[in-house]
Design goal:
The two termini are 31 Å apart. The protein has 445 residues and is α+β, with helices and mostly antiparallel strands. It has 15 helices and 16 strands. It is globular. Helix 9 packs across helix 12. 50% of the residues are buried. The structure holds D-malate and zinc ion (ZN). Zinc ion binds next to strand 15. D-malate binds next to strand 14.
Length: 445
């Protein structure tokens, strides 16, 4: 009965729970938190359970607090361009509600049918529209959340210009369920762009993909999304989804670019591609969403193809470092882990690459993760671009944050959740004062 709450969909993260609780509203969430705090039981908030770093999986019997039933959309404001909704509303439903009002929701990701608004806020999810609208935090106007003593924190203003003290919604965005349980969100909606044009360009190098992207940005077109893929990734997706090749010619790298602009956006894109002819081996410009299938099929195809749960590392480097990072990564994996298949893809304009390592011997997961993260640090990057830290990356936080930075985070957490009951195994935590055992063996890291 509880199996789907204690395992993530990649199969990599498993745990145990004492109970799954499914409250229907904020008051019930508050009640659950009060009871758990009194009993010293850890609570793991869970939305669609689509995270990739083990952040919503209980480790040692903590209670799973599912927000799935907080699923009403209470308001869509077509003039103020906002949506107010429960934490359990899926991204796809928020997108549909926005469309009905002639607007769009600024976050989009392949897991849209399961990922929830509470989940994307808790993880500060990224996705394919960050290049245009920013991450989830950038969409967040207001929040309702239950803190660890059961009080309800409400910050709810339908406008951006509200400069009164700390911006607590921003603090909760990306806190991975450690500071509060998000119950309702107030988010921005956007005006849909004019004429959309989609293209796939086969390019010889990552450098040429970046140059082509730069040319598109300078042409007067607006880049709505820019996704990098490799020949190896495309082959995997084609096999899994039974698709024909996207281009006539096979190329080492592929750039999927969605742009918007005036009525002649197609001509502008064509002219830009012609002007950048020496960067491109082959290209197709299309209407419709067919080309997106190659990109969106990556995650499921990788999962289906790997003989062991894939090691999924989501990193960023400065754009100027991306090509040399990938070259070093490819070399190191080939020499130190010759049986491992490397497939990477991602939101190239943000310098964000999803490094997927297939067929990794589970005994070597930690070792290979460390090797990749050391390389990321050497290239001045970040060990988590958009998936968060969760359980999978906590051991390497020192590569991305200074001691002082981590201590400030611990102090904030301790001041809001002194008994450490909220998602106790995620992110660094100070030991609760006088506690020997709290929240299901919540060993502080
Ligand atoms: C994506 O961009 O498709 C997601 O972040 C999922 C993934 O990394 O597999
Ligand atoms: Zn992504």
């Amino acid at each position: 009965m509880t199996a789907r709450y204690v395992t993530d969909w990649t199969g990599r993260w498993n745990g145990t729970t004492t109970a799954v609780v499914r409250p229907a509203d904020t008051e019930q969430v508050s009640h659950v938190i009060r009871v758990c705090r009194r009993a010293g039981i850890g609570v793991v908030p869970q939305g669609g359970n689509t995270g990739l770093v083990g952040g919503s999986i209980p480790l040692h019997g903590e209670i799973v607090l599912s927000l799935a039933r907080l699923d009403s959309i209470t308001a869509v404001d077509p003039i103020g361009h906002t949506i107010a909704a429960g934490a359990g509303v899926t991204v796809a439903r928020a997108q549909a509600a926005a469309r009905e009002a002639g607007l769009i929701f600024g976050v989009d990701l392949a897991s849209r049918d399961s990922a929830t608004l509470g989940g994307i806020v808790a993880t500060n999810a990224g996705g394919v529209r960050v290049i245009k609208y920013g991450d989830t935090r950038a969409q967040l106007l207001g929040i309702e959340a239950v803190i660890s003593d059961g009080s309800v924190l409400t910050r709810w203003k339908t406008f951006t210009k509200d400069n009164v003290g700390y911006h607590l919604p921003s603090l909760l965005a990306g806190s991975e369920g450690t500071l509060a349980v998000v119950t309702r969100v107030l988010m921005k909606l956007r005006v849909p762009p004019p004429h959309i044009q989609l293209a796939m360009a086969g390019v010889p190098t990552i450098g040429s993909a970046l140059e082509l992207l730069d040319a598109l940005r300078r042409s007067g077109l607006t880049v709505e999304a820019a996704e990098l893929m490799t020949d190896a990734g495309i082959r995997l997706v084609r096999r899994h989804r039974n698709l024909r090749p996207p281009l006539v010619t096979d190329t080492p790298f592929l750039l999927l670019a969605e742009v918007s602009g005036p009525a002649d956006a197609e001509t502008m894109m064509l002219e830009t591609f012609e002007g950048a002819g020496d960067l491109i081996i082959d290209a197709t410009i299309e209407h419709g969403s067919r080309l997106w299938g190659y990109r969106e099929g990556h995650t499921e195809s990788i999962n289906a193809s790997s003989t062991t749960p894939p090691v999924k590392l989501d990193i960023t480097t400065p754009l100027a470092e991306l090509e040399s990072f990938v070259a070093d990564l490819t070399r190191v994996i080939a020499s130190e882990f010759p049986d491992v298949r490397l497939i990477f893809f991602g939101h190239v304009a943000d310098g964000n690459v999803h490094v997927n390592l297939l067929d990794v011997d589970p005994e070597r997961t930690r070792e290979i993760t460390g090797v990749v993260f050391e390389l990321v640090a050497a290239h001045d990057g970040s060990i988590s671009a958009e998936h968060g830290i969760g359980r999978s990356k906590a051991a390497w936080m020192h590569l991305a944050r200074s001691t002082v930075d981590v201590e400030v985070m611990k102090a904030i957490r301790h001041s809001i959740d002194p008994s450490l009951i909220l998602n106790p195994h995620i992110l660094p935590a100070a030991r609760p004062a006088g506690a020997s055992r709290v929240a299901g063996d919540a060993t502080p890291r």
